[in-house]
Amino acid sequence: MPVVRGKNIEPLFTPEQIAERNREMAERIASGPVKDLLVIAVLKGSFIFAADLIRALHHTGLAPEVEFITLSSYGAGTESQGVRIVKDIDSDVSGRDVLLIDDILESGRTLLFAKELLYSRGARNVSIAVLLDKSVKRKEKLEADYVGFECPDYFVVGYGMDVAYAFRELPFVGVVTGDA
Ligand code: IMP
Ligand code: MG
Question: Measuring from atom 13 of ligand 1, which residue has the nearest CA?
């Protein structure tokens, strides 16, 4: 089992599995009715997945524009949980076909907020691609259009995802199981 920063990390999804799913998702996205696609990566956790999925999209012949939005949730574990924009996109989305890319769809609050925001700004269509779907944790009525893997209800790290700023650099998705 890999040991990183003195912790045992049990791999859940390997780099090879992830690369294969990225290729399949890109093919499905490209086979849809997309034209003039604007991809928006939801930072920070999606940065590696977005980089790989965007390059997989290139190999299908699509030439998306790429934007970034940083969103943060507040009040986690309290009654009034919300999402705020830490750093907004620069582009005008009116009339555009938008693909939101995020690492994990969990409660659905983050991506529901993003989707409603983009529609309120006049986007023509907003679809969602996530690497992982923790569907048992869903609180909002929201599903992703493209899902890499159904995720067991563990706190996962790697491939862009962190716990307390650590482990984003891992090339696989894994679970911290304890001290090495
Ligand atoms: P939601 O708004 O509850 O759907 O939250 C999804 C966001 O929470 C994701 O974009 C991640 O940033 C974060 N998140 C949820 N579960 C995990 C996890 O297991 N590891 C790392 N980040 C997570
Ligand atoms: Mg996130």
Answer: 104
119: three-class secondary structure by DSSP: helix
**DSSP string of 9-44, one letter each residue:** EEEEE-HHHHHHHHHHHHHHHHHSS--SEEEEEEET
Query: What's the CA gap between 70 and 65, in Å, rounded?
Result: 17
Residues 142-167: pLDDT tens digits?
999 999 999 999 999 999 999 999 99
Q: What is the pLDDT of residues 4-52, one digit of tens each?
A: 999 999 999 999 999 999 999 999 999 988 878 999 999 999 999 999 9
For the domain that residue 54 is a member of, what is the CATH number? 3.40.50.2020
**Residue 97 Cβ < 6 Å to ligand 1:** no
CA triple 41-172-127, angle to 5 deg? 25
Domain span including residue 51:
15-154
